[in-house]
Design brief:
Residues 5-123 form the Cyclic nucleotide-binding domain. This protein has 548 residues and is α/β, with parallel strands linked by helices.
């Protein structure tokens, strides 16, 4: 049976690909892919083979690509660091194709595109289970360590976690590298290079998730890579526009934190938010979109007809149009000292990493929406007991019925209605949670608390320069207040487009937009539709430039 991760190209497909690269010969074993390379080439084997090796293992052969098989994974499209090494066998002949040329071939030939991308996705999934990646050493109860794990986990950066609170061999590891516990968290790669207390920015750069952005002018700058932002990226780039997408943390937004989305059209058995985001991430790059994280936008202004965006870790970004797709974030519970426990017992998402952390423990989930329900059902497979804590009387008030019915049927989930968390406590991490149901304290042994309440728009970077509603969500199209439309702007000649804000050429989609339906499907819909508004704006802007 043919392994779908390692298919063979047909003779016709190989001939097509020859036009995008060069043929090379290797008489002796030669390393052509090296661990940690961020920009590496794609190879098709004509004769001989390429041995793929995991450098973290003593006998680390992953596979051998034979005749008409090919190297690589989806990281080749994004210039992310490769987690394996590739070495030719004796007397090997290959086609070497540069990443940019590979993208052109994928764009032109659908049969090659389908074969390669399917194999790339399957390889990525299997690599998660077989490749160890870098070592991260730190305390599971440290919010600094958690921030690193969270970023690496959501960006699919392969790593092995060593919990300094549990690992018996920690002392010998620290001694071998002349480290102290005060140096933690520490990252160690396969070349035994050490990074003490690395920042998220450093990890983004080293892994290749964050790109060095050139001083170019983009047709579209998408700020935020949740479902709305990724959809806009896919549709805009597939229609030939030059697109840059940035995000402050990782692709997926709030949806990326969902363990399982079951009511999204086309996925009858459901799909995790992370997988949905990863597919969109690859799909956008397939069409030529540039995606880079982390970049936190600090300010935006318009100068000489172009938007100039100042963001962390890069020079000023310039674009003809901008799409705000920054979404919304869950609010902190109004409790004294709660920030102390964020990442050390209090969390705002529920992923497989969190599930492994809270095995056989009692956990609390605050919130009555779909995200809370999905998290509760997912974590109930690992935790001893799950409490869902809601202020209202009816859990079905904001949650889809299919989730409500499953929660009722789950033996280790208890719903606490008319309830609030009134206090959190602990020395260096969360150890105690006080819950009041009406006026009575609820006995519990919760040591992990997940909150999914009170989303607020992520619009700080806009600094009140556009029209919003009372809660800060962005007005677009016909909802923009008349007094917010500058009579001296082009809005004196036309009405704002459907997803356009009170600033011409600045658009808003998804959860950040006032009146949006907080669902993945609607966010994807808005992200796709806004591209037609972009085309209209660019067309009239080009006309204005030509006539002037």
């Amino acid at each position: 049976m043919i392994d779908a991760r390692f298919p063979e190209l047909t003779n016709q497909q190989v001939e097509k690909l020859k036009g995008y690269g060069i043929v090379e010969n290797f008489e002796i074993p030669t390393t052509i892919l090296d661990y940690g390379d961020k920009r590496y080439d794609f190879f098709v084997v004509l004769e001989g083979g390429i041995k793929i090796i995991d450098p973290e293992k003593d006998k680390g052969n992953v596979t051998i690509h034979g005749r008409h098989q090919f190297s690589g994974s989806s990281s080749i499209l994004s210039h992310r660091a490769i987690g394996v090494r590739g070495e030719t066998l004796k007397n090997t002949q290959v086609i070497r194709i540069k990443p940019d040329q590979l993208k052109k071939a994928i764009s032109k030939f659908s049969d090659i595109s389908d074969l390669l991308l399917n194999a790339f996705l399957l390889r990525e999934e299997s690599l998660k289970n077989s490749i160890q990646g870098v070592k991260l050493i730190g305390s599971e109860h440290s919010n600094e360590t958690y921030a690193i794990r969270d970023f690496m986990d959501k960006n699919d950066i392969l790593y092995t976690f060593v919990d300094s609170d549990k690992d018996d061999g920690l002392k010998s590891i620290l001694e071998a590298f002349d480290l102290k516990e005060s140096d933690l968290p520490v990252m160690i790669n396969s070349q035994n290079e050490i990074s003490i207390r690395p920042s998220i920015d450093e990890i983004g750069e080293c892994s290749g998730v964050r790109l060095k952005l050139d001083d170019e002018i983009y047709d579209v700058l998408v700020i935020g890579a949740g479902p709305a932002g990724l959809a806009a990226s896919v549709y805009a780039s597939s229609e030939g526009l030059k697109v840059l997408t940035i995000d402050s943390n990782s692709p997926g937004g709030q949806a990326g934190k969902s363990s399982k989305i079951e009511n999204y059209l086309g996925f009858p058995t459901g799909i995790s938010g992370r997988d949905l985001a990863n597919n969109g991430y690859i799909q956008a790059q397939k069409f030529g979109c540039t995606i880079s994280v982390p970049h936190r936008v600090e300010s935006i202004q318009k100068n000489a007809g172009l938007y100039e965006v100042n963001a962390s870790n890069t020079s000023t970004l310039k674009a003809r149009t901008v799409i705000a797709a920054t979404g919304a974030a869950y609010r902190r519970l109004p409790l004294d000292g709660i920030e102390k426990y964020e990442g050390a017992g209090i969390y705002y998402s529920a992923t497989s990493m969190h599930a492994n952390m809270c095995k056989n423990s009692e956990i609390g989930i605050v919130g009555g929406g779909n995200s809370a329900g999905q998290a509760a059902l997912f974590l109930a497979n690992y935790a001893h007991k799950v409490y869902i804590i809601i202020r209202k009387e009816d859990i079905g008030a904001k949650m889809s019925d299919y989730l409500v019915q499953r929660i009722i049927a789950c033996e280790n989930i208890e719903v606490l209605t008319n309830s609030n968390v009134v206090k959190v406590d602990g020395d260096t991490y969360l150890e105690k949670v006080d819950i009041k149901q009406k006026d009575t304290l609820v006995p519990n042994e919760i040591s992990y608390l997940f909150t999914f309440v009170g989303a607020k728009p992520c619009t700080e970077w806009l600094d009140n320069i556009i029209d919003t509603d009372a809660k800060g969500f962005v007005h677009t199209g016909l909802t923009i207040c008349d007094n917010a439309l500058n009579s001296e702007s082009e809005f004196s000649q036309r009405k704002p487009y459907t997803f356009e804000t009170s600033l011409p050429g600045l658009f808003a989609v998804g959860d950040v937009r006032s009146g949006s339906v907080k669902r993945v499907a609607s966010a994807v819909g808005e992200g796709s539709i806004v591209v037609s508004d972009i085309h209209k704006f660019l067309a009239q802007d080009k006309f204005a430039t030509t006539t002037n």
